[in-house]
Amino acid sequence: MQTWTLDNIARLVGGTVRGDGQYVVDGLATLKSATSTDISFLANALYRAALSTTHAGAVLIRPEDAEDYQGIAVLVANPYAAYAQLTHHFDRTPKPNAGRHPQAVVSNLAIVDATASIGACAVIEDNAVIGAGTIIEAGAFIGARVLIGKHCRIRANAVIHHDCIVGDRVTIHSGAIIGDDGFGFVPHHGRWHKIAQIGCVVLHNDVDIGCNTTIDRGALDDTIIYEGVVIDNQVHIAHNVIVGAHTAIAGCCGIAGSTKLGAHCMLAGGVGLAGHLEICDKVQITGMTMITKSITKSGSYSSGTAFDTTENWRKTAVRLKKLDDMAKRLRELEKLVQQLPLATPNESEYDG
Amino acid sequence: MQTWTLDNIARLVGGTVRGDGQYVVDGLATLKSATSTDISFLANALYRAALSTTHAGAVLIRPEDAEDYQGIAVLVANPYAAYAQLTHHFDRTPKPNAGRHPQAVVSNLAIVDATASIGACAVIEDNAVIGAGTIIEAGAFIGARVLIGKHCRIRANAVIHHDCIVGDRVTIHSGAIIGDDGFGFVPHHGRWHKIAQIGCVVLHNDVDIGCNTTIDRGALDDTIIYEGVVIDNQVHIAHNVIVGAHTAIAGCCGIAGSTKLGAHCMLAGGVGLAGHLEICDKVQITGMTMITKSITKSGSYSSGTAFDTTENWRKTAVRLKKLDDMAKRLRELEKLVQQLPLATPNESEYDG
Amino acid sequence: MQTWTLDNIARLVGGTVRGDGQYVVDGLATLKSATSTDISFLANALYRAALSTTHAGAVLIRPEDAEDYQGIAVLVANPYAAYAQLTHHFDRTPKPNAGRHPQAVVSNLAIVDATASIGACAVIEDNAVIGAGTIIEAGAFIGARVLIGKHCRIRANAVIHHDCIVGDRVTIHSGAIIGDDGFGFVPHHGRWHKIAQIGCVVLHNDVDIGCNTTIDRGALDDTIIYEGVVIDNQVHIAHNVIVGAHTAIAGCCGIAGSTKLGAHCMLAGGVGLAGHLEICDKVQITGMTMITKSITKSGSYSSGTAFDTTENWRKTAVRLKKLDDMAKRLRELEKLVQQLPLATPNESEYDG
């Protein structure tokens, strides 16, 4: 187990120690869970109450928040960024040595950098290229002619099919499938005839693809995920989708074929995008929303329905089916009331 | 093929045979599909009509339901429980022998109980511990320092990443990914910077995790699934979620980060829970509902929208966007009508 | 890289060349992306404008659309079908040789046709049968007694559990899990007791199953996918579901247990079907719709909610919870207005 003095931590995050800089910690934890050998952090005023009860050995904290706190503090302007930075030093994710596991299966025609690491039962097909420092974990499959850049991590049992291109510092989490066929069939006499999918998938630098997410290869052109995009688990990205740089997509979203999503967008969980749309940059979409038309103006969009008790919701659901009828009846009533000889002007006219 | 006398079946399920106790069956089937060598069951009055046409050799049945039935019966108080019990005796899921397949890849530093079974191309990393009677099927990946208890079954191509903890009698179905990274990034100058996920996943005893379900490791604290929880396929459970004991989660649900779901809850398919919520015990959530606020009272909750013909639904959808306007117009009309000199009192006042 | 003369392409698709039939192409591309060594196609009038700017060496085109086009044309009645046909000739998906990779793990009790191909780290269990020309890619798992027909392709890291039956020309894409257990538990004293799932999965001829899709084995009877069904990625099909021939199911759909879906149906993305329903033939269901009742009439059905700006949608959402109240108030108002001595007849009566 690695240990750190608070002086060393302060140096790392650009802070200053208030108290014993030689105090030693070996873990990073929440205020609630921390013990005396952990360092914790206060980033959100909502958790300030936890300061008085925490058992943390030290706390990363803004100077202005530290007055109430009696323990050892590492004063820092942005405790959340400092915490994020420190996580990498307390991370226990195995860092395998360079080289090939004896039970890795690497084609003689593949070109694997000497500093790359290939795990047990990983399979690397003909003419694939694996860059420096890249880790291919156990059971992963790298298809023919796939190009993978430097310092990537392809996690256990992930799959990248033939001819796909992966930039540098890309992470593909376990069970993700990159570059299998898009869902392309042409109907003929009541049967579906497959259209071979001859495009590929291009993942630019610094992309992060979640577990069991699927990104299909393009029908003709490629499916493209631009730089810095982060995608959570269980997301479905269909053929020829384009995702703009630095967009974030939360779990369980689905994006249908040929839709072009802009840069710096944020999709919450369970969002669905229909095919052949264009969504401009800086669009936020809230949870479980269905997008059926292109969006040309940045901003936030929604259609997820808020819950109610099932008893109340059933009443709403019954009425919802009659909404068109209700709207017509309302209109009739308005006309009728307007015709009444004694009707006064509609007050809403005064509202502006 | 194994065969059973009805006497033996009756003994097993605590019932009594009405008819030939030496009659032999070799299968368990529905009333509709059963042949003369099968035993079937009547658990639900809805299927009573099938009794008169079934070809089953015998039927598990309540004494009070057996009067109409002429065939051999195994009388039992709870035929459904008896059926459930019998399924395990007719189950043909392979039961591999203890020991390691020659093509299993097991670290010399792993501790594998002599009664455990490790399949071909399964990979077990350093310092993992595999308990007695546990089966690791082909292609599964068990990361470094993972602890797995007794009599678990980790099915083909499932993944458990480093440092996760799995109790006894846990089943993890194929393609499920336990303990890959949570979706944690901090934005900085328009880019996403990864926060290393240094918690793990803890699965308590008797948990059952469906195919291709993903359960992410915690950011700092652990993601915890308590005893007896059953989770169906394609479910996404984000970092630091806590699921209370004996809760059931149907397919395609998604639970966002840090949400705490109570014990004995039931989520139907396609439900989405936003992050940082607390859902109390004994909450039922119906299909495709979106939960965006904490729930403090047990009961049933919904927001899934009932379907209609597309033609009708389109009319509803158009009106839905104008619902706020409709509500305002209704309010105006009410005011206007109240002002009419000849208006009679609103009848609803009499409704109580 | 393979090259084609336009004469050869015309012969293949049943068209005629207008221009130089000896012109050579080596790729197939969209009008927008094509270069002078590609052939492209015009199938949809929407893309006609691209004809004037394309750099394609030749274009598959209807005679009546070719008048405006100056380049070399392959005249054909149905350019889209011609394109679909050609894709298979430009497809670079590896076609592995017959035989077993040295690191494949094949039971001595399995029966593998000599023309089948078994990839590295694929695992084939006892008594499985693999038909002629079938390709089992790397890392795939084929359980005991599974029967797989001819010319199937089971892609990298897909799983088929014991006793399942797969017809001819079936493709199962990467990460798909066929025949793991259905989600069957019986509650008893607050705990869930597993019901062993003793049915299997039957995939008829020409079925195509997408990446990370899961199809559970039946509880007693089988889960059945009939001929020609195509299923996209991340779909969840529960135990004992039956899907009728030539039905297409888009990504992220979920079908709960024992539901019977008809033939020639089309489900758009994210659709959910409750359990124990019967959906007749030729039903279309639009995106993110929830189906909770059986459907007996072919046609199109919907409940997916169109999006709005979050600001507007919030107003709608608030009103939606009060919809039952609004409906009651509208009814009251109608009664009240009808009682007014001077009220004129409701105009809607004249509407018929």
Name the descriptors.
disordered C terminus, 352 residues, homotrimer, 4 helices, UDP N-Acetylglucosamine Acyltransferase, domain 1, 40 strands, alpha/beta, eleven-stranded parallel β-sheet, Udp-n-acetylmuramoylalanyl-d-glutamate--2,6- Diaminopimelate Ligase, Chain: A, domain 1, 3 domains, ten-stranded parallel β-sheet
Any guess at the CATH architecture of the largest domain in chain A?
3 Solenoid
Radius of gyration of chain A: 28 Å
Oligomer: homotrimer
N- to C-terminal distance of chain A: 69 Å
Uncertain residue ranges of chain A: 343-352
CATH superfamily annotation of the largest domain in chain A = Hexapeptide repeat proteins
What is the number of domains of chain A? 3
What kind of sheet is the major sheet of chain A? 11 strands, parallel
- The fraction of residues in strands of chain A falls at 25-35%
**How many DSSP E strands of chain A?**
40
Trace the largest sheet of chain A across and list its strands.
8-11-14-17-20-25-28-31-34-37-39
Which structural class fits the helix and strand makeup of chain A?
alpha/beta
If helices are DSSP runs of H or I spanning 4 or more residues, what is the number of helices of chain A?
A: 4
Helix content of chain A: 10-25%
Q: Identify the biggest protein-protein contact and residues per side.
A: A-B, 78 and 85 residues
CATH fold node name of the largest domain in chain A:
UDP N-Acetylglucosamine Acyltransferase, domain 1
Mean pLDDT of chain A: 95
